[in-house]
Each structure stands twice: as structure tokens, then as C-alpha cells.
């Protein structure tokens, strides 16, 4: 079926004609296979900018349509490809629309062929004149021979438009695509076909091998299908706020990085901030944004060339690294608070205290916080708190600070949507990954009564861009692993009933589950996760369980088993210690650091190289400033051992969650359950759960029931302590 993406809402000067042609293209391809974009993100040299309309057609290949909304009396003369104008058109007295479209088609064709390995891909270019009929053109220029393929106003019917495209001579000759070729082209044009490829050894893995490194290689060769929702999130620019609620592993960080890059390329004069909470994500996000800038410009632009306008900012920042809060404190002209000048509390609580103080300072001095034209927030669940004293005027302090940092969108960009004011605040979150709060960053929770005014009426902006998106496909974590993560994180199979979770069919379906039964007290509910919503193919390559659990009589025995398993991963299974293996430890406050030290000592005694996140060096205990690297999470050649809080946003092929007895002691603690969910969902492949003295413990029995459940969770519904329903 045809799928069409409007990357930015129609309504700007000269776009009425483009909208008319785009709607005609949509009508012409209704019911057929096609992929269409209005303003596909491609910005290179000044003469080759994003195409007005791009069509991917399995029969024709790629078709670029350059739209010129000119009346006939504005064209004074035509000489070959050159058009002379009687009066300026956006400051120009001469146009060469076909050459512009031809160059775009040629470049897009080269990029698509390179990414899809389709040497038979054809490309076409045509100029559309929605204000001029064929008769009007012929009456004025019919005596001239013209090689310019054109689409006139009276050809914007489905049959005539398709005929005009079919008769357009190719810029690059090709052949119709079969089903495999068509899927490859869609992937090449989409986000999935452009995601940075993992560097993996032994890509030519023997098909019969059961070594993890070979199974990982087979998995890595798997191409994601084109995901329309990913394209809508990554390639569209809303004219106001947007909320993105994504399941763990759905690619929120990748899509926000691409969205920020596209915003900068389309609007290089905008000040844009991409903000995140966990410092260990800093290098990852910078690399992602840099990749997408280069991808969209054929390597001509990068983060280095965009940094003065597109800024990657940690939520707080430090003296040696600018952050979002510190940037705004400078704007207001106040000395930013440091961590040691805030009350005792979690990292989130300390940050929100500082944000609230800054908002009060701005209010008292009357100074504006407005710096940015767009703010994108990753890990949004970690920037809220339920404590009233950390809010500002009944609004979440960080989000209200971010909202106040934005310049209002120009009125003509609102396109008569009816909103009294709009600001481009875009935040992404997964409520199940919050480790410090039970608050869900819904619009109502963030802004209170002001939320309705901020979002305005309706669920979409004019042009179809959604105000809220829910991502239900998990590309990172295999289906059985994600099922176990949700079951254990929410306590779905607890004997006493679930602790947290969704309480209606619609919300479960929205995050990719099939549901049978009713969410009424005492009734039976069944949850199944279809393979299409967890496309990681690893479960199809091995019959071995991807999630295992073992209880040991004491910690020494648990750590000895961990060392043996890690040694097997490195030696027999051929895994790299860094980025393919991750050991995480749970616990509240100081607890995980004590267990981290025990794991560190056990691995060092076995002569395994170890890295503790935040350190500058490997194989040393926790280092303090100045011998530290707050952004560090991986070191080549070393196994990372991390508290779960620091592991957020990172991933590995094999994850070990050590010390589950810490959770068992308080198995009804929702924050610890969230840690368990985050730890398990870091995995791209296998998860090993272990603890001590858990025989006969309720949590051990619950884990065994989850692992025995297969691909379907059956449980008796009881209302949970914490509801995660989507309440707007």
C-alpha cells in the first residue's frame, strides 16, 4: 500500500501548489505500492536541495518532482532548460527547474543504490506546473522544442499523472523491482537502512555454528523492514510540542538524533538543543547526530559544522562541559548551582531543585529564558519527580524551564491550527525505565492545567503530523527477553498480583502486545508479543533459552560462576569484552556500589580486565575527580561492570544481572522492579540473572514462572499499585 510522509506542515509561501501536486500524487497511487515524501531530507550544495516531492515506485524507481507555482505570464522565455522570468521569483530572474530536479534524482539514486545494492534502480525527474495548463503552455511556447518533462495543472488526475510519470525519460535507466528489491529500496530511503552499522567480526558465520559471536553476526545481517512510524517521527518537524512514548529498545535516541539533524538542515538559522539525562550517553548521541548530518548531506555537513546552532547538552552540565541548565543560568545571568550546593537527594531531585531555583530567579528579575527554537529531550522519564517541593507552580520544573527556554513559533508556521501559542518542545520517554520516580511524563503530569493550552485541541497538526506518538516495535531486545523484562519489572506473575503496569487493552496493544481477557479484578488476562513487534531474529537462530536464572548459596559461589561464564563468552563464544558483554548490579543509594566493588575484585582476581563507568582508567577501583571521566561507559578490551542507573541507554549482546537477592529482599519495591526491567532490557541477545539464597523465595518462584511461560503470559488481574496507562 502507498505510504506518504509530509516532513513539515504545509502552509509556507509558495507551498499551496506543492500541496496540490502532492495530494494528486497520493490520489494517483491510492491502493498501489509506493512511498512518497514531501521535502525528503536531502541538503547538499546550494544547487542540490531537498526535493519538493520524492516518489519511490517499484516499477519506475525514484521519481523527483520539482514544483514551480508560476503563472504563465511570469515566464518571459524558454531556452532549452533555462527559463527567463518577467519578474523576480524568490529573488531570481532565471530558473533551471529540470536541471535542479535531475541533479536531485541523480544524487538520490546514487545514495539509494549504494545503500540498497540495487544497480538496476532507475530514476526520473519532472517539473510540475500546478498553475499552468498544457493548452496555456502550448499557446505561448508550443513552437519551441523543449526537453523538459512537465506535469501541467490539467494532468493532476490519477490516470493522467501516472501516464505522465511513465512517459518521463529516465535520468538513470533501470528495471522494475521484485519484492526483495522493493523492500531494499524502502529500507534505503528510510531510517532503518541508514542506521550506523555495528562493527562485528566473523560476519561470514557458519550457519550451523552455535557460538554466540556467530549467532550475533547472523542477527546483524538482518535488515529491518521499513517502519513508517519511525520515518514519521524522525523526518517530520511539528509546528508545536510533541510527545514520543517509546517502548524500551524502540530506537528513541536514534530517532531524536535524526530529528535534530533534519531540523538543523532544514532550518540552519534555528538554535536547537538535544538534551539527555545520563552522561554516559554523551558520546553515543554526538556520534548519532554527526552520522545523520553526514547521511543527509552526502558527507558535506557534520556536527562540527553545526555546533554553533545544534547543541548536544547534558541536562545539568559541568564547569568543563556546557549543559542545558547551566546554559540557561548564564542566559538569566545567575551563578549556576553545583551538585554540592543542592539538598541531599537523588541526581534527578538535585537537578530539579536547581531548575526550580532558576525559574524563580528568572521570575524575580523579569529576565527571559528564551534561547532556543526547538528543544528535544531524551530519557524524559528521568527528568520528573513526584515531590511537590521540586515543582514550579504545579508544573515539573525541568520541563517548564525547557518550555520557557523556547521562542514561540512564528504565527504563520502555526497554519491556522487554532493554538494561541506554540513552542517546539519534543520529549521522548519510556515510563517503565524510570529509576527515581513514579511520575509518568504525560502532558498532564508535566504542565498541569496548562497542558491543554500548550498542546491545543486535536491530536494532529494541520498536515497530519501527530502531537503524540507511541512506538511499539522493539528492535534491540529479542521478544522473549522483552517479555520477561516487562513481566518481572511489573510483577505480572507475582502471587500477590501485579505491582505496576497498564490496566487496559488499548494501552497494551499500543506498546505491541496482543491481549485476551478483561482488566477486571479476579479475571484472567493473556499477553502475547507478536514477532513483528520484536523483529530481532535471534530467537529463530537458537533453541537455547535467551534468559536464564540461577540462585547460589553465597556471593562467592555466584561470582565464581559469573567468572566462569564470562571466560566462556570470551574464549569459546568469541565475544569482545567491551560493548558485547555488560554486567549490571541493582540496589538503592549506596548498595550497587558495594556490590560493584565485589564483582570488580572477583573479575580482577581471575585476570579479567574490568572498567567501572565514570573512571578514566581500567582495572582500578572507583576514581574521583580529576582522575575520572563522567561520560565514560566503555573501554576497549575491558568488561563494564555498572550500577543499573549508569547503564541506562546503553546495550550489549550479553547482559549479566548480578545480586538479584537485593531485589528479592524488597520484591514489592517498584523502583527496584524498574531497575530489573532496565537491566534485562539492555540486552540485544542473552540475559543471565543470578542471586544468593533465593531458594524458596517468592521472587525466585516468580522468575521461574516467567521463564516457563514461553511466549504468552497468563495472569489473574488485580489492580496494581502504579498504573502506567496513557492518560495524555
UniProtKB/TrEMBL annotation:
One Pfam family cited in the UniProt record for this chain: NERD
Organism encoding this protein: Deinococcus xinjiangensis
Domain of life of the organism encoding this protein: Bacteria
Domain NERD: 14-128
InterPro entries, alphabetized: DNA_helicase_UvrD/REP, NERD, P-loop_NTPase, UvrD-like_helicase_C
Record domain UvrD-like helicase C-terminal: where: 639-689
Name of the protein this chain belongs to: DNA helicase
Amino acid at each position: 500500500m502507498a505510504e506518504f510522509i509530509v516532513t513539515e506542515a504545509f502552509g509556507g509561501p509558495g507551498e499551496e501548489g506543492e500541496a496540490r501536486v502532492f495530494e494528486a500524487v497520493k490520489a494517483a497511487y491510492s491502493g498501489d505500492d509506493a512511498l512518497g515524501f514531501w521535502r525528503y531530507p536531502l541538503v547538499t550544495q546550494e544547487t542540490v536541495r531537498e526535493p519538493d516531492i520524492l516518489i519511490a515506485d517499484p516499477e519506475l524507481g525514484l521519481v523527483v518532482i520539482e514544483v514551480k507555482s508560476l503563472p504563465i505570464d511570469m515566464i518571459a522565455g524558454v531556452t532549452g532548460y533555462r527559463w527567463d522570468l518577467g519578474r523576480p521569483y524568490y529573488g531570481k530572474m532565471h530558473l533551471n527547474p529540470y536541471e535542479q530536479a535531475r541533479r536531485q534524482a541523480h544524487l538520490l539514486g546514487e545514495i539509494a543504490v549504494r545503500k540498497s545494492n540495487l544497480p538496476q534502480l532507475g530514476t526520473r525527474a519532472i517539473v510540475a506546473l500546478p498553475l499552468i495548463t498544457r493548452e496555456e503552455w502550448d499557446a505561448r511556447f508550443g513552437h519551441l522544442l523543449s526537453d523538459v518533462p512537465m506535469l501541467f495543472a490539467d494532468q493532476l488526475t490519477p490516470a493522467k499523472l501516472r501516464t505522465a510519470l511513465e512517459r518521463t525519460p529516465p535520468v538513470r535507466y533501470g528495471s522494475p523491482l521484485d519484492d526483495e528489491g522493493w523492500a531494499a529500496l524502502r529500507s534505503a530511503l528510510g531510517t532503518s537502512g541508514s542506521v550506523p552499522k555495528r562493527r562485528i567480526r566473523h560476519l561470514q558465520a557458519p550457519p550451523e555454528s552455535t557460538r554466540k559471536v556467530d549467532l550475533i553476526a547472523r542477527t546483524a545481517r538482518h535488515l529491518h523492514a521499513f517502519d513508517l512510524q519511525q520515518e514519521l517521527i524522525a523526518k517530520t518537524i511539528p509546528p508545536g510540542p510533541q510527545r514520543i512514548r517509546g517502548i524500551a529498545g524502540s530506537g528513541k535516541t536514534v530517532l531524536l538524533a535524526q530529528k535534530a539533524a533534519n531540523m538543523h538542515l532544514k532550518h540552519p538559522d534555528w538554535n536547537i538543543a538535544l538534551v539527555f539525562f545520563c552522561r554516559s550517553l554523551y558520546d553515543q548521541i554526538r556520534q548519532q547526530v554527526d552520522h545523520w548530518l553526514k547521511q543527509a548531506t552526502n558527507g558535506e555537513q557534520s556536527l562540527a559544522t553545526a555546533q554553533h546552532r545544534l547543541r548536544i547538552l547534558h541536562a545539568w552540565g559541568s564547569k568543563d562541559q556546557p549543559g542545558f541548565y547551566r546554559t540557561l543560568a548564564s542566559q538569566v545571568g545567575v551563578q549556576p548551582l553545583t551538585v554540592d550546593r543542592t539538598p541531599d537527594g537523588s541526581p534527578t531531585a538535585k537537578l530539579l531543585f536547581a531548575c526550580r531555583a532558576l525559574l524563580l530567579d528568572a521570575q524575580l528579575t523579569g529576565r527571559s529564558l528564551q534561547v532556543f527554537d526547538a528543544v528535544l529531550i531524551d530519557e524524559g522519564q528521568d527528568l520528573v519527580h513526584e515531590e511537590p517541593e521540586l515543582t514550579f507552580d504545579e508544573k515539573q520544573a525541568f520541563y517548564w524551564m525547557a518550555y520557557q527556554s523556547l521562542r514561540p513559533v512564528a504565527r504563520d508556521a502555526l497554519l491556522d491550527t487554532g493554538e494561541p501559542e506554540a513552542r517546539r518542545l519534543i520529549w521522548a520517554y519510556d515510563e517503565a525505565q524510570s529509576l527515581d520516580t513514579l511520575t509518568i511524563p504525560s502532558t498532564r503530569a508535566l504542565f498541569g492545567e496548562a497542558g491543554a493550552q500548550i498542546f491545543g485541541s486535536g491530536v494532529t497538526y494541520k498536515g497530519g503530523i501527530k502531537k503524540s506518538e507511541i512506538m511499539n516495535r522493539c528492535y534491540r531486545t529479542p521478544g522473549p527477553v522483552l517479555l520477561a523484562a516487562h513481566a518481572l519489572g511489573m510483577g505480572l506473575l507475582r502471587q500477590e498480583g501485579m505491582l505496576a503496569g497498564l490496566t487496559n487493552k488499548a494501552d497494551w496493544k499500543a506498546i505491541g502486545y496482543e491481549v485476551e481477557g478483561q482488566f477486571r479484578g479476579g479475571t484472567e488476562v493473556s499477553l502475547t508479543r507478536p514477532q513483528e513487534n520484536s523483529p530481532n531474529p535471534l530467537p529463530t537462530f537458537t533453541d537455547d533459552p535467551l534468559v536464564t536464572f540461577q540462585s547460589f548459596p553465597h556471593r562467592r559461589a555466584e561470582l565464581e560462576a559469573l567468572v566462569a561464564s564470562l571466560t566462556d563468552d570470551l574464549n569459546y563464544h568469541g565475544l569482545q569484552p567491551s560493548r558485547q558483554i555488560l554486567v549490571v548490579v541493582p540496589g538503592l543509594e549506596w548498595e550497587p556500589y558495594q556490590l560493584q566493588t565485589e564483582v570488580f575484585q572477583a573479575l580482577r582476581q581471575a585476570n579479567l580486565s574490568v572498567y567501572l563507568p565514570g573512571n578514566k582508567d581500567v582495572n582500578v577501583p572507583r576514581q574521583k575527580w580529576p582522575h575520572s571521566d563522567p561520560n565514560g561507559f566503555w573501554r576497549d578490551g575491558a568488561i563494564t561492570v555498572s550500577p543499573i542507573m549508569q547503564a541506562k541507554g546503553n546495550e550489549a549482546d550479553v547482559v549479566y544481572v548480578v545480586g538479584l537477592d537485593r531485589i528479592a529482599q524488597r520484591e514489592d519495591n517498584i523502583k527496584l522492579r524498574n531497575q530489573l526491567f532496565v537491566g534485562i532490557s539492555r540486552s540485544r541477545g542473552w540475559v543471565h540473572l543470578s542471586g544468593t539464597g533465593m531458594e524458596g523465595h517468592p521472587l525466585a518462584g516468580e522468575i521461574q514462572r516467567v521463564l516457563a511461560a514461553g511466549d504468552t503470559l497468563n495472569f489473574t488481574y488485580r489492580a496494581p499499585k502504579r498504573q502506567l496507562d496513557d492518560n495524555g
